[in-house]
Amino acid sequence: MVTFVDRVTLHLSAGKGGNGCVSVKREKFKPLAGPDGGNGGHGGDVVLVADPQVTTLLSYHHSPHRSGGNGGFGMGDHRNGAAGDSLELPVPVGTVVKDTSGEVLIDMVEPGTRFIVAPGGIGGLGNASLSSQKRKAPGFALLGTPGWQGDVQLELKTVADVALVGFPSAGKSSLVAAISAARPKIADYPFTTLHPNLGVVQAGENRYTVADVPGLIEGASEGKGLGLEFLRHVERCTALVHVLDCATLEPGRDPLTDLDVILAELAAYPVPDGQIPLLERPQFVALNKIDVPEAKELADLVRPELEARGFRVFEISTVSHEGLRQLTFALGDLVASHRAALAAIPVPEKVVIRPRGAVKDFIIRVEGGTYGDIYRILGEKPVRWMQQTDFQNEEAVGYLADRLEKLGIEDELFRLGASPGSTVVIGEGDGVVFDWQPALSSMAELMTAPRGTDPRLIEDNRRTTSQRRERYKDRMDAKADARAELEAERIAERGRDAEQVAE
C-alpha cells in the first residue's frame, strides 16, 4: 500500500571543502622554483528541485538523512582538488521549505525551481594562490570549510486550480475520476481517500487541475478526522466546489446542514498572510448522486435556497455523467478569467540597494565572564577565516591575524575597551579562544622568517632601546670610575716617588 506523506523533516549535511596544498616546486636545476600547491575542491551542495513527476515526500520520510560529496584535497604542481558531487533531491511542485523555527525559506510553486538548501563548504587555497610580492613562498595553506549542516522542514501544499471539498463519501473521488483521467481509490465507506488526488480536466480550450481533498467533518479545523492535515492543500486553489451528497442515509444529515458544517470549518482555518481567505474565493455547489430518484427530488428542493445564498448550483451524477459538462466548462471559464486577471497585473521590479557600509562584516559582543569580559567576534568572514586556519602552523595564525586586522577588528576591540591579554573568542559556542595581543597584527609580509613560522609568535627576549641605552650609560660610567681610580693611583704613586727623591 502506497503511503502519502506531505510533511517531513530532512537532516542535511553538505560536503566539506578540500584542504589546500603546501608544496614547493623542485627540479634538477631549480631546487626552489616557487610554491605550486593547488587549491582544494568545493564541497557538494544539497539542492531541492521541483519535479512535476513527484507527488509525495514518502522517500524522505523513510530516508531523512542526506549529504553531499566532499571536495578533494589540493596537490602539488598546481593540481586542484576535485569538487564534491552535488546532491539533487526532487520534491513535488508546491513544496514549502521552512527552517526549524518555521520561517519560510522558499515556496516551490513553479516546476523546475531549484533551491540550494545546504551550500557546500569552500575549498582552501593552496600556497601558490597565497603567494604575493611580499610573501613569495608561503609555508601554509588554507583549510577547507565545513558544509552547511542542519534540519529543514518540507511541507507539501497541492498546486491545483479547483479544490473539491465535502463530507466523506460525498463523491469527490468519483467526480475526479469522471471528469479526468485520474483513477483514485473509490469505495463505499468513509475516509476512503487518505491523500489528495489530482486530475487534469480539459474543457474546450481550457485546461485546469482539480484536487480531491480528503473528507472534512465537523471539528476538522481543530484536528478531528483528516481535515486538519489536508486543509492546507486548499490554500493554493482558485475556486472551491462543495460536493454535497443528496443520497446520504445517515440520520441528521442533508445538503444544507453539510454545507453549513463545511463553511464553518473553512472559515476557522487560517490561511497564510497575503492569501485570500477560503470563504472569499469563488464557490460552486455540486449536488451529487442525482441518478437516485430520491436524491433528484432533494436536489430540486434545496437548489432554490442555495441559489438564494449566492451559490452557483450544478446538479450532477458521477455515474450517469449528467451535468458534468456544464460544471467543467463553468470551472474552465472561471479559471481562465482568473489567469487573465493575474497576467494583467504588472509585477513590480524588485530593486535592492545596499549602500556601502550598511552591512557590517562582523560584530563584537561583550560578554561577562568569571575572570573578566569576553569579546566574542561574530560574522561570516571572521568565522570562515577561523575555519580555514591551521592553528598548528604559526605562519597561518599570523596570516589570520593580518586578515582580522585589515577587517577593522583591532580598532573595534580598542573602542570596546579591550586591552592586551583580554580573552577573545571567534564564533558561537566554544569557538576559538585566545588572548588578544595587538602586536600580532603588524606587517607580517615585511618580516623574514623560515617558512611555516611567524616571528611575532616567538617570545622575544631582546632588550629594548631604552634598556640598551641605560646599560650603555652604566657601562660608560663604570669605565669613567675605573679611569678616575687609576688616575688617582698614578698621582699617589708619583707623590711617593717625589718624597723618596727629596730624602
Characterization of this structure:
Strand 10 (197-203) and strand 11 form a beta hairpin. The protein contains 11 helices and 18 strands. It has 3 domains: 1-156, Spo0b-associated Gtp-binding Protein, Chain: A (Distorted Sandwich); 162-344, P-loop containing nucleotide triphosphate hydrolases (Rossmann fold); 363-457, GTP-binding protein OBG, C-terminal domain (GMP Synthetase, Chain A, domain 3), CATH 3.30.300.350. The model is unreliable at 189-194 and 440-448 (pLDDT under 50). The longest helix is centred in the C-terminal third of the chain and has 38 residues, at 465-502. With 503 residues, the chain is α/β, with parallel strands linked by helices.
Give a short synopsis of this structure.
The chain has 503 residues and is α/β, with parallel strands linked by helices. The chain has three domains: 1-156, GTP1/OBG domain (Spo0b-associated Gtp-binding Protein, Chain: A, Distorted Sandwich); 162-344, 3-Layer(aba) Sandwich (Rossmann fold), CATH 3.40.50; 363-457, GMP Synthetase, Chain A, domain 3 (2-Layer Sandwich). It has eleven helices and 18 strands.
